[in-house]
Write a structure and sequence with these properties.
Blueprint (H helix, E strand, L loop, with lengths): L2 H52 L6 H12 L6 E5 L5 E5 L8 H8 L4 E5 L2 E10 L2 E9 L2 H48 L21 H49 L5 H32 L7 E4 H10 L9 E5 L10 E4 L1 H17 L6 E8 L2 E7 L32 H11 L3 E7 L3 E9 L2
EC number: 2.7.13.3
Main location: membrane
Catalytic activity: ATP + protein L-histidine = ADP + protein N-phospho-L-histidine
């Protein structure tokens, strides 16, 4: 069922429930009024009957005639009965008789006014005391006119209810159609956007209002398209650059193998060819490892991570640097907490270690043979790690792109690398709730600032 139909039927159901409650209440109030009015008339008939048949000898002629005239205006199917103190019927008007339950008759004789039903008739019994004795007067009749009015009223209310439902349904359809028209237009615009035209955006004011739910939905969808477009562009660039980076060592390896097999050579030539092939395959293996690490960095961290001391993690990363480059590292510690537990964080030790190693290797590689300063300092709620080199630096135009995989600045191309280490380190650090900031000046060096939250 479409949203329009659901809204229409929901609107009809709610209004029908309210309308049914109002009409039912009106009918019940009218029914209660009709019953109370008929019972009052029955009581008056019982009193008049008592006066006529028990006070006849004590009334003046004119008064008796007035009561008799009133009594002659009988109710439909009216029956009047008089009981004496012993419970015997003294008088019955009309041939039929009312069946008065004994317990009802007993309560009337005690002085209570009782109402009861006898088939289609409603009846009332009153206690009447006369100078001749004590009597019970019972009057019963059918409320034909009242029931007819109620049936007529019920017919009118049912007709009003049915016609109202039809009008409400038509109004609900019209209202739902107008309310959902912007959604239909938004849906049409969304369907027209494919992976080949992610640059397109949907209109954000289809409803004519800037801050309603539809405008916010369109705005959110456009932001989603922005992220998708950025992701698609990054994926295309990644595939293009990865293909180029993978093809270079593969093509070199194939060329070396073909050249070695072209003719018979001396053992030294074969050794030189195998050495060149090993170099290319080593670069290819390093690149594939970086790609696997990038893929691993994209996956969410497990719920149960290990607790890691940041100072120990930094020591492990420094120890993993090649022995020939290790002396160039200048490690400094600033303000550290008195409790070592304040330097602990939760996360994936392998990933964090890989991120720090990549940052250290980058600094050493692009500043050779100058030293690299590494500073660790505690700050409330986390630690700050600063890695500062005195190398070639990065041009201002290249800084916004250095975190794209496989991007390499123009002055960095003579140095062996793949452009994966810095983006990988940033993803790992952000995955652990931290942030990585980079500042650089061309020819003066680069500073990497890492903030990591402690447990």
């Amino acid at each position: 069922m479409t949203i329009r139909n659901r809204l229409t039927w929901l609107f009809v159901g709610v209004v029908a429930f309210i309308l049914l409650g109002v009409l039912t209440t009106a009918f019940l109030l009218q029914s209660d009024y009709s019953r109370r009015d008929f019972r009052q008339r029955l009581r008056e008939r019982a009193v008049v009957a008592a006066y006529i048949y028990l006070e006849k000898d004590e009334l003046r002629s004119s008064a008796f005639q007035a009561f008799q005239k009133q009594f002659q205006r009988t109710l439909p199917e009216e029956i009047i009965q008089l009981y004496d103190a012993t419970g015997e019927v003294r008088f019955v008007r009309e041939d039929a008789r009312l069946e008065v339950p004994p317990e009802v008759l007993a309560r009337i004789q005690e002085g209570h006014e009782e109402y009861f039903e006898d088939g289609p008739r409603e009846a009332v019994g009153i206690f009447y005391r006369d100078n001749q004795g004590q009597y019970v007067v019972v009057a019963g009749a059918e409320n034909q006119y009242g029931n007819a009015r109620l049936r007529y009223l019920a017919t009118i209310l049912v007709s009003v209810f049915v016609l109202s439902l039809l009008l409400i349904y038509a109004a609900g359809r019209l209202f739902a159609g107008r309310a959902l028209a912007p959604i239909a237009a938004l849906n049409g615009q969304m369907e027209s956007i494919s992976a080949h035209d992610l640059h397109r955006r949907v209109a954000e004011n289809l409803s004519g209002r800037e801050q309603d739910e539809l405008s916010r939905l369109a705005h959110t969808f456009n932001r989603l398209l922005d992220r998708l477009e950025s992701s698609f562009d990054g994926q295309r660039a990644f595939v293009r650059n990865a293909s180029h980076e993978l093809r270079t060592p593969l093509a070199a390896s194939i060329g070396e193998a073909q050249l070695a097999l072209a003719r018979e050579r001396e053992p030294a030539a074969y050794r030189a060819a195998l050495h060149a092939l090993l170099t290319d395959l080593t670069q290819l293996n390093a690149l594939l490892n970086h790609l696997l690490e990038l893929a691993q960095a994209e996956t969410p961290l497990p719920e149960h991570n290990t607790r890691i001391r940041v100072d120990e993690l930094l020591a492990e990363a420094c120890a993993a640097i090649a022995p020939a480059q290790r002396p160039r590292l200048r490690l400094h510690t600033g303000h550290l907490p008195a409790e070592p537990e304040q330097l602990e964080l939760t996360g994936n030790r392998t990933l964090l270690n890989s991120a720090l190693i990549n940052l250290l290797e980058n600094a050493l590689k692009y500043s050779e043979p100058r030293p690299v300063a590494v500073e660790l300092e505690y700050e409330p709620g986390g630690v700050r790690l600063r890695i500062r080199d005195e190398g070639i630096g990065i041009a201002a135009a290249d800084l916004p792109q250095v975190f794209q995989p496989f991007f390499r600045a123009g002055n960095a191309r003579p140095v062996t690398g793949h452009g994966v280490g810095l983006p990988l380190a940033r993803k790992i650090i952000e995955q652990h709730g931290g942030r990585l900031e980079l500042t650089s000046q061309l020819g003066q060096g680069t500073t990497v600032l890492v903030h990591l939250p402690t447990a």
